[in-house]
Amino acid sequence: MAVSRFLASRLRGRAWDASLTAMNFRLACFLFGLGVLPLAAAPTAADEILAAFQSRMEEGGEFSDLLESVADLPGAEQKKLLAEIEKIWPRMRDTYLTELGRAATGQVGKKGGQQKEISSLRADFMRVYALDEAAMKPQLKEVSWPAVEALRKLLAPDSAQLIEAGGPKIQAQRKVVKALAELRDGAIKAAIATTPMDSVSSLEAGEKAAAEACCGFSRADLRILAQNRKIAKDKEVPEAEAKGIEECNEWRMLVGLNALVLDPKLCEAARDHSKDMQEQGFFAHESPVPGKKTPWDRAKNFGTSASGENIFMGSGDPHSANMGWFYSPGHHKNMFSPGQLRIGLGNTGSHWTQMFGR
Fold first, then answer.
1. What's the predicted TM-score (pTM) here?
2. Which of 147, 218, 220, 277 has the fewest CB neighbours in a 10 Å radius?
3. Residues 225-244: pLDDT tens digits?
4. What is the dihedral of CA 335, 336, 342, 346, to 10 degrees?
């Protein structure tokens, strides 16, 4: 099989060869846990595409011209190429993701030394939180943010960190699978197939899921994050607002606090206040708009309640707003209050309003 010969040669670090031995092919199957499949008798046009693809990988070249050549293949050859890839792609992807998950198990926040470090970092963070605002301000950059970054590495490494920690075998598998994903998407596009062109996106989603599955957060907090994503989708909360809420929750979870439930009504109240600030040219918690004077008034107008509010001006990026609040003692106190249960975030232009509820 052309694809299998290609994969075997890639793992062996050799140039593609139509006469690749069965021994090398069996080695490729063993490394990826695949059944042994028969080899084709002679290379075809589809085989030549795989050979050229192998060359680009070895040379670190671009694939755009190669994908164009896929489009130039006769229809029958396009379908053959895609069929060859489809025989191995799902198992190849899933085997790699399983291996990635296994490599990550036990690496995140579970070893004795890590637990001591996590406890120490969280204690440092909460020590600064307990200071008065004047004493807190310099410590937010010197102690609090470094603690968050260190905790993230211990408790919530991203997929890139997991791949690096997985060592040479995982990294070699990932390189092959990612390259095959790109070729598959190109073949689907060329053949105008009804198959979803989601090879790369499904691979990256699987890697992200593997990272989330091995994180050191509690199951209860992870359920809240999943619930929030569903609420955001169902209630059509803008992506930037949902992203800002999830980032704030991640910070809280890292330092040992509970995740907050997304309250779409608080998002509406917050968005409305941001809109008023932008359109009417003021920047304050007290609004000049009749019936909207206080955060409590504004929350009540949208059928909910509030226990705190942060405002920010100067960027349309939720991360910038969150960082601005993180380094501002009064806003920081709101973000990391242990008593908060709900959260809303609303954006208009470069104005942001963050609201909390108990």
1. 0.71
2. 220
3. 999 999 999 999 999 999 99
4. 10
